[in-house]
Design a protein that fits this description.
This protein is α+β, with helices and mostly antiparallel strands and about 1000 residues long. The protein is about 55% helix and about 5% strand. The N and C termini lie far apart (about 125 Å).
């Protein structure tokens, strides 16, 4: 950057001593910027700019002088000024005389007397840039120059002048050069722009000749060509880096081909074998004023990451210079950081120039560039950075939140979108603004007034925008020019309602609602509303669809178009319309639905499955009943599962017999790995003839117990059909289903399927199930067996006819209502329960806590004392459940009598639980005291209790006391006691050992003739 003009101004007053510096600098190619610095004299100065984007010299000079004047009016003065070396070579400071200077230099060059350092090629380029038409006769002389740069500059400039005076001569240059060097390529661009049709055709033909043979063979078939082109670039070697450039030249008159090339270039990487062509296309499209491709290539260059950033590279295990590597026939590098910067700047210079000289072309470029942006494809992201600066006065850091908008490195885009912004600033080659309320900002685009007169272009940008920045650009202009949208045609309105951006829809839906408030909209607009990802648009679309349904549904191919929207709520709507009848019977054309069968599909798998359900399981399928056998078989033999599914569902309601269509392929469906295909394969069987079903009844029965849930579900209609046809099948399947529902479920969901078949097809048959089978269902551990058994019990079993032991079994049922029935029966039949108490006590075997708790209360309150026999009490005490044992001990205490005492004592002493051992000690004094026979029978009980270590202390103390007292009175008891003590002595605690010693001493004193296991020392 070169300083052209500079001013330094000072201000001194009181303690204030400030400096203000202003620079007018050349940015390159006749564009300039104004920078300034200010602050305390001698301190670090703060920097800024008055021109975020480079501008023409005349504009820059006005800003420079205005800035200086404003400071001088505030008291600043010029103590010291510096005027830099001015660009005298072209007298740049004065517009007057520039053309004369250029012409003079060119004259000298033609005569061979030009001696200045400024290269002739640059003078020619400057003549073209300044549109110096008078220079054309002199420029023509350099068409044959030996200097390639002069030759290139002359042809390029003549193309800018649209001069055709020596078109034949330039065509000769092309024929001699071809596409090998830049002179040949610029000649080709000149001819395609200004040559006659014959010359243009020859250039395109030569481009075609240069294409590789593997691509040329596909000329005429655009899709095949670009498929081959993709494969071509996958090769490891022998790739011509100019192929895309040749494609571009060839595409000039082929709209379809050019459209696909545009898409290809939008995704092509800027690397070896690609960038060369992209660079060539950039230059050619600029000359041809092909704004769409110039916008695309300038965008790709501006936003893509450079292939390399250093002049020194490590290639093939050695360091090399980048320039050396680029000269190789097959270089390994392309697209440097320096190249990116150069093109970014050059694009800006070109577009800034046309914004001043050709506003129509500028608008076209801006439009093309904005619609080429794609936030997702371009990976465009907003960036936020925080900048901290220290304030000497406050002694604190100031924080700035800097927002770098999407595409913030793309200079020309920033100019187009923010060209009149007062908030945009730049940092290196990036543009940013300080965070602010963007909703209340004034418009910021360059040439604001120009856009106020371009309604068609602004609406086009809005309708085709794929980026936030383009949407915001158009909406800001429309906000000030609401009339832009008032007269747009229906076709454009349809495009806008299909827009991805919610803000676009918010703006356009108001217009749509108002315009069609009283009249029926076109079906294409309706389709767009339903297709939109906007709730308000969808609601409006479906409301219109319901309101004008009969009109829309008779419209040719409307239903097919509706179905191809790809939204499940559309399928839901169609299911509702065709659920019970064929409301509209206009046959559909299957060919209009071919995109449903394409691979890869634009639809989700979930959606395609829903469409299959619509076709196969509602009356909608009858609209496709005439689909040909050939079409169905093509789909059935497809390698794509979803197409096979379509084939089966289309066959269900086809006029041709399903058996005819699928007799050879149904097994492939049934044995498929796909659940959907297995299901539809089974469903097809219900459409097969009766003879086939009868012949294959064993297989059909087996499907009822398949490991696949969808198979078990889908076979049910076929089973229903076969049950009506074959009584033996009906009987055998019934037995299998009952067995299946009562036994362990081998596959999840099997019980449910058995239940469905039984309740659907065997309602009358179920009434004949024996009582024991009903009990089996009620007492089953499986939900669906219980669910089947309960109503059968309620309808067909009279509980009054049951024995108590049968009723007690029902207390084990998992069904709460059945257990309640048992409780109610007991409550209503107290005398009978007293009479059959032994059978009734078996209710304690129930696993349900509510039954046990209730039974304890019931037996306590309703069973008479005389009915509690010893065995019944013992049954309760001996029960495995602790709660029942407790109940038993309680009943013994409550209903105890002398005649029961001894039998209870002898029986209870065998009980292993500590609670029962303790309970028995309560009866030792009453029923064992002084009874040698009984005491000796209790030896096992005593041993079991005394073996407890650190447990059952009270019971053990009672036993020790009892044995000590009885041993004194009875020798046999004393001998038994010694045996017990010898058995437990090694396991005793200190306390028990002390008790044992005391007892042994007591026995020794009472029975001296009995030997005790103690050695007594005499003092």
């Amino acid at each position: 950057m070169k300083i052209i003009k500079q001013k330094t101004l000072y201000f001194s007053e009181g303690k204030s001593d400030k400096v203000y510096e202003v620079d007018l600098c050349e940015s390159g190619s006749d564009l300039f910027i104004i920078n300034f610095r200010f602050g305390r004299r001698g301190a670090s100065l703060r920097e800024g700019t008055k021109t975020v984007f480079p501008i023409a010299y005349d504009e820059a000079l006005v800003i420079f002088n205005s800035l200086v004047s404003s400071k001088e009016n505030k008291g600043y003065s010029e103590e010291l000024s510096l005027v830099a070396n001015e660009v005298n070579q072209v007298n740049i400071e004065l517009n007057v005389g520039r053309e004369e200077t250029i012409i003079k230099y060119l004259k000298d060059a033609v005569l061979g007397v030009y001696v200045r350092d400024w290269k002739v090629s640059r003078i020619i380029m400057r003549a073209g840039f300044l549109n110096t038409v008078k220079a054309i006769p002199y420029i023509n002389h350099f068409i044959d120059s030996k200097d390639a740069f002069e030759q290139y500059a002359s042809i390029y400039s003549l193309s800018k002048f649209n001069d055709v005076s020596i078109v034949n001569k330039i065509f000769d240059v092309f024929e001699s050069k071809g596409f090998i060097d830049k002179v040949g390529r610029v000649s080709a661009s000149y001819i395609l722009k200004l040559g006659d049709e014959s010359s243009k055709s020859k250039v395109r033909d030569q481009a075609l000749v240069n294409l590789p043979e593997e691509l040329k063979v596909h000329i005429g078939n655009t899709d095949a060509f670009f498929n081959a082109l993709s494969i071509y670039f996958l090769k490891d070697k022998d790739i011509d880096g100019s192929v895309l450039y040749y494609c571009y030249l060839f595409s000039i008159n082929d709209i379809s081909f050019k459209k696909q090339l545009y898409t290809f270039l939008d995704k092509a990487p800027l690397k070896v074998n690609f960038f060369k062509s992209i660079r060539y296309i950039y230059r050619a499209s600029h000359i041809l004023n092909d704004v769409s491709f110039f916008a695309l290539t300038s965008k790709r260059i501006a936003i893509s990451k450079p292939g390399y950033t250093s002049n020194y590279l490590y290639v093939n295990n050695e360091w090399t210079n980048a320039d050396t590597e680029k000269q190789k026939t097959n270089p390994s590098i392309a697209f440097s950081k320096k190249t990116k910067k150069y093109f970014n700047k050059t694009t800006y210079q070109n577009i800034y120039d046309i914004s001043k000289t050709n506003k129509t072309l500028y608008v076209e470029y801006a439009k093309s560039l904005l619609v080429s942006l794609d936030d997702a494809l371009d990976n465009a992201k907003e960036d936020v950075q925080y900048h901290y600066s220290y304030n000497n006065e406050t002694r604190k850091y100031n924080t700035e939140k800097r927002v770098f908008p999407k595409y913030h490195e793309f200079l020309v885009l920033m100019y187009i979108v923010y060209g009149s912004s007062t908030r945009l600033q730049h940092q290196s080659n990036k543009w940013f603004y300080l965070e602010s309320d963007t909703n209340n900002l004034p418009r910021e685009e360059a040439l604001t007034k120009l856009w106020d007169s371009k309604p068609d272009e602004v609406v086009y940008i809005l309708a085709n925008a794929n980026s936030e920045i383009a949407v915001e650009f158009a909406l800001r202009i429309i906000k000030d020019n609401s009339h832009f949208l008032e007269n747009i045609d229906d076709e454009l309105l349809e495009q806008l309602v299909s827009h991805y951006h919610p803000r676009v829809l918010d703006v356009i839906l108001d217009i749509v609602e108002q315009r069609f408030r009283l009249i029926k909209p076109e079906s294409s607009l309706l389709i767009g509303l339903i297709k939109a990802n906007n709730d308000r648009a969808n609601t409006l679309g479906f409301n219109w669809l319901k309101k004008y349904e009969s009109d829309f549904f008779v419209e040719t191919s409307f239903i097919e178009r509706l179905l191809l929207i790809g939204k499940e709520n559309v399928v839901d709507y169609l299911k509702e319309v065709f659920d019970k009848s064929i409301k509209y019977n206009e046959p559909l054309n299957i060919e209009n639905l071919n995109s449903l069968f394409n691979s890869p599909s634009i639809f989700t798998l979930e959606y395609l499955i829903e469409v299959n359900n619509l076709i196969g399981n509602t009356n909608f399928g009858k609209l496709l009943s005439s689909v040909s056998e050939e079409k169905i078989k093509v789909l059935a033999n497809s390698n794509i599962d979803i197409n096979k599914l379509f084939a089966a569902n289309l066959a269900k309601q086809n006029v041709l017999p399903t058996y005819q269509l699928f007799k050879d392929t149904v097994d492939g469906y049934i044995n498929s790995e796909s659940p959907q295909l297995r299901q539809v394969g089974i469903e097809l069987l219900s459409h097969f003839p009766d003879e086939f079903l009868l012949e294959n009844h064993y297989r059909i029965s087996a499907f009822c117990f398949s490991e696949y849930d969808e198979v078990r579900e889908a076979i049910q209609p076929t089973v229903e059909k076969l049950i009506r046809l074959d009584e033996n099948f009906k009987n055998n399947l019934f037995k299998s289903l009952i067995r299946g529902i009562e036994t362990t479920e081998t596959y999840e969901g099997l019980h449910k399927n058995c239940y469905t078949l039984l309740t659907t097809n065997y309602k009358q048959y179920l009434s004949s199930i024996p009582q024991e089978n009903i009990f089996g269902l009620l007492l089953s551990n499986y939900d669906y067996a219980q669910k089947l058994g309960e109503p059968l019990f309620n309808e067909h079993v009279d509980i009054e006819t049951l024995f108590v032991n049968s009723i007690v079994q029902l207390a084990n049922s998992d069904i709460f209502t059945i257990r309640t029935i048992v409780k109610d029966y007991f409550k209503n039949h107290v005398p009978k329960i007293n009479y059959e108490l032994e059978a009734a006590l078996l209710i304690f075997n129930s696993d349900w806590e509510d039954i046990i708790t209730w039974a304890c209360t019931y037996f306590k309150e309703h069973i008479k004392s005389e009915n509690w026999t010893t065995n019944m009490l013992l049954y309760a005490c001996d029960h495995t459940k602790m709660e029942v044992q407790y109940f038993g001990r309680k009943m013994i205490t409550q209903h105890f009598s002398d005649e029961k005492g001894l039998p209870l004592l002898l029986k209870l002493q065998e009980h292993p639980t500590k609670a029962m051992q303790f309970f028995v000690t309560n009866y030792l004094d009453n029923y064992a005291k002084d009874n040698e026979e009984v005491i000796l029978k209790l030896e096992t009980y005593f041993k079991t209790t005394l073996f407890n270590i650190n447990e059952n202390r009270v019971a053990k103390t009672r036993i020790y006391t009892f044995l000590e007292q009885e041993s004194i009175k009875n020798k046999s008891v004393a001998i038994m006691t010694i045996r017990l003590i010898e058995a437990v002595l090694g396991t005793n605690t200190i306390t028990d050992t002390s008790n044992n010693i005391d007892i042994l001493l007591t026995i020794a004193e009472a029975h001296p003739d009995i030997e005790i296991p103690l050695l007594i020392k005499q003092n």
